[in-house]
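tool=predict chain=A
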Amino acid sequence: MGIYVNPSADGFKEILNYRKYVDKSEMIAYTNSVLGTPDKLTCFSRPRRFGKSFAAQMLTAYYSRGADARTLFSGLKIAKMDKDSNLEEKVYYEENLNKHDVIAIDMTPFFLSSSMNGI
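tool=predict ok
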């Protein structure tokens, strides 16, 4: 059993320590740009084995009130976007950092146990 409402950033911290991590934190800038608009219902789909779980962990760590992820994101692309003068709009990545209620449910264990039991 895990924490499903406002989880910590431990899962994302573990992913950052993984030597093959690819920084896709610009996804947060897009997500922030559609919050409070009709486009807020967003689906981030990717082919199999292309980092959907990593992206979900990143978004959870960023938005969750149960996390203190400032140090985790400080070295990523999203933190540097505020300083990029070529952007049409400022990103202000700290505006939504750890300020939302998040429900995170990872279905992977369910599918793994189902396939092992022949279900």
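The chain has six helices and no strands. The chain has one domain: 10-116.
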